[in-house]
Known about the structure:
seven-stranded mixed sheet, Aldehyde Dehydrogenase, Chain A, domain 2
Amino acid sequence: MLNDSYPYYLANEPVAANQDLEVTDKFTGEVATRVALADSEAIDQGIAAAAKADEAMRRMPPYERQAILNHCVQRFTERFDELAMALCIEAGKPIKDSRGEVSRLIDTFRIAAEESVRMNGEVMNLEISERAKGRHGMFKRVPIGPCSFISPFNFPLNLAAHKVAPALAVGCSFVLKPASRTPIGALVIGEVLAETDLPKGAFSILPARRDGADLFTVDDRLKLLSFTGSPGVGWDLKARAGKKKVVLELGGNAACIVDRDVDLDDAIDRIIFGAFYQSGQSCIGVQRILVHEDVYDETRDRLVEATAKLVAGDPKDESTFIGPMISTGEAERLENWISEARKAGGKVLVGGKRDGAMLDATLLENVPKDLKICTEEAFGPVAVLSSFSSFRSALDDVNDSVFGLQAGIFTRDLYKMMEAWDVLDVGGVIIGDVPSWRVDNMPYGGVKDSGLGREGIRFAMEDMTEIRNLVIRIP
């Protein structure tokens, strides 16, 4: 269970400044714990401490950074059940999904520990012409400097880890603003980091109100901003970030194509998971399902049958698959989108009902493509079915979106696989599975309104470093 209250972490130290932030149990709606809330003065102090710690972090040898990351792996493993239950309570995430996220937290820090000792440069042959005779070149990667991280509510452990772990691996100090709805996981990460010998000021983890957190974006002492969250907020932050490098992991309305030659048993199992795991609150959750007309009726009927069997309820119950959305307001928003689709001629095949923050797993068909449920990010347990006759037209439909994060393709045709990889304007194409699949060492990110840059430890480490060139002239 949760503690009665949690401090924030300022320059590596716990600070019980207040108990101003109430964190609710997302299923019951009751206050589960209280958290210290950082004001602008504390944020300024955290940034100043990160800037002061920059040189010490740069000078840490890789084996010391690796030891810190390995300590985190050990402690997260020891606190596995505690972390899973905290996540279940603060995010309303079903306990099985919560355990999965803790496993990914551990994986992410383990991968970072491995990568921390193999961040290498390259020797280059510069003698490409007569004027370069006698020149020898090489480059290395150096830490970019103090980083600002803003993480979202839906994966409060793992998406914070995808910022914190690579920063530690390369030697960057940082300040982290976790989502105010789900700050506990990040604060436990802070508690574990406080057990290590990181230089003073290496990290601060500061829950804060959005309207008081401008310094995370605009302060010039910070050299990189990494934000995961909604597109509207993300692009606004980029516009105000000044000279610092910006990495954005934003939203999507991910599509999944089901061709006529696939194993439907397998495809249906995976689509049900991709559309409805953690109540659809994933930027790569399956939102648009495009099915070949030859197998459309069977696929639709079987998806409806499987969706109707999903167990909704208390996320602490082992049998629960659908828990609450993050808030009643978000559930009401999506209920309104479903209603809009129904009024425009769309058919609710299953689900569509709401009780507080609980929204039924819902499938729709015959929805006009210009409605919000198709064009925007649903971020909840709703998916829309449609049919196609030609594979290329299905690819065009996937691309007909302002987003481009990941797409899933169920096909056994090698040529169609290669065509999808060539044609789809997305950050990742997943063959034989849903777009919702991710492993923590792969390059992950999107194009168009889905963001800038890539996460995945090695790729985040590249963003958190600069290339420093060396040229040697031998007379």
